[in-house]
Write a structure and sequence with these properties.
By secondary structure, the chain is of the alpha/beta class. It folds into three domains: 4-85 and 159-229, P-loop containing nucleotide triphosphate hydrolases (Rossmann fold), CATH 3.40.50.300; 97-155; 233-297, 2-Layer Sandwich (Alpha-Beta Plaits). 31% of the residues lie in helices and 28% in strands. The chain has ten helices and 14 strands. The strands form three sheets. The protein has a six-stranded mixed sheet with strand order 6-7-8-3-9-10, sandwiched between helices. A four-stranded antiparallel sheet has the order 2-1-4-5. Helix 3 (101-111) packs parallel to helix 5. The chain is elongated, with a radius of gyration of 24 Å. The two termini are 39 Å apart. Bound molecules: adenosine-5'-triphosphate (ATP). Adenosine-5'-triphosphate binds next to strand 2 and helix 1. Adenosine-5'-triphosphate (ATP) is lined by residues 15, 24, 26, 44, 46-52.
Length: 313
């Protein structure tokens, strides 16, 4: 077996036409390997095909063509083993309102054929912070609690791979931090491979080792988060002046100046063309006395916009 958690080759999905809707090619032949033990981000604008991809991995959507191997098991040849290797926390809060968290976890474990003595229901309830709600009906749980329960359900069969589809969309900061703490622990302590989709690029930047960007059903780019960010040849030197600086400052070629509302000066430059020292020298020359200096790095958002803006839908 290779050391990929997921291997995808030439994956296509065409949704059939319905009524007035024409057929839709949601995935146009994706090739992607996701390494074992990574925290992997799947990014893309709305309608890019992320959920389709995840639902194919989860066995919820049937692919049109291509190969999918999960933990070395070909989905078409070994459907049971490939399903057992993956746990999915879905986007929608689709819980049976009359089940308690304990019952939900038990039923899910039963569906995956986990023998009663091997079930870790109490441990999972504890981890997702629902031990004291174990016997409450799902309809009485808050949105945040339901989401935590969905995470618990994804873990009952102790999968090697955990997939999170927009796990933090619309959740408050406390829950977001709790989710990420748990996800990091699962990754670090159990070596679980984590695949997540998110619209929050800052989150992807903070959490993911590697990132793939999907757009209009194609894989645009896949790289380490660090490399992805270093593709952008732009940095910003931020200066806090002691006094209001003069209106005219002669700057090196290619450097642009933004005056921020808080009085700081933001000087944007291409790191391959200009040295920050040259900008500082120009400021001194113009009589700007500097109280503080910092450098802002580009964000994943800049890469994302750069790649997806040219042919926005
Ligand atoms: N069941 C379906 N039938 C027909 N078309 C579909 C179906 N599900 C998704 N699509 C279409 O396939 C494309 C990809 O959708 P998908 O939900 O995979 O995108 P996404 O990247 O997950 O978007 P979002 O971030 O909004 O969830 C979209 O154009 C969508 O309208």
């Amino acid at each position: 077996m290779s050391d990929a958690a997921i291997e995808i080759e030439g994956l296509r999905k065409v949704y059939a036409a319905t009524g007035r809707e024409p057929e839709k090619e949601a995935l146009k032949g994706i090739d992607l390997e996701i390494p074992q033990g990574s925290i992997f981000g799947l990014l893309g604008p709305n309608g890019a095909g992320k959920s389709t991809l995840i639902n194919i991995l989860a066995g919820l959507v049937v692919k049109t063509s291509g190969k999918v191997r999960i933990w070395g098991f070909d989905q078409d040849v070994n459907p049971r083993q490939s399903r057992a290797a993956i746990g999915v926390m879905p986007q929608e809060l689709n819980l049976d309102p009359f089940f308690t968290p304990r019952a939900s976890l038990d039923v899910q474990a039963g569906l995956y054929g986990v023998p009663r003595r091997e079930r870790r229901t109490d441990e999972i309830l504890e981890m997702i912070g629902l031990s004291d709600k174990a016997e409450a009906y799902a309809r009485n749980l808050s949105g945040g609690m339901r989401r935590r329960l969905l995470l618990g359900k994804a873990l009952v069969h102790d999968p090697q791979i955990l997939v999170l589809d927009e796990p933090t969309a619309g959740v408050d900061i406390e829950l977001r931090q709790m989710l990420w703490k748990n996800v990091r622990r699962l990754n670090e302590e159990r070596g679980m491979t984590i695949i997540l989709t998110t619209h929050y690029l800052e989150e992807a930047e903070a959490m993911c080792d590697e990132i793939a960007i999907i757009h209009h059903g194609d894989l645009l780019v896949r790289d380490t988060t660090r490399n992805m960010i270093s593709r952008i040849d732009a940095k910003t030197l931020v200066i806090e002046p002691v006094e209001t600086p003069p209106a005219d400052i002669a700057l090196p070629d290619g450097v642009t100046l933004d005056r921020r509302a808080d009085g700081r000066l933001a000087l944007n430059y291409a790191k391959t063309k200009t040295r920050p020292g040259d900008i500082l020298a120009a400021l001194q020359e113009a009589g700007v006395v500097i109280a503080d200096v910092s450098i802002e790095e580009p964000h994943l958002e800049d890469v994302f916009l750069d790649l997806t803006r040219s042919d926005a839908a």
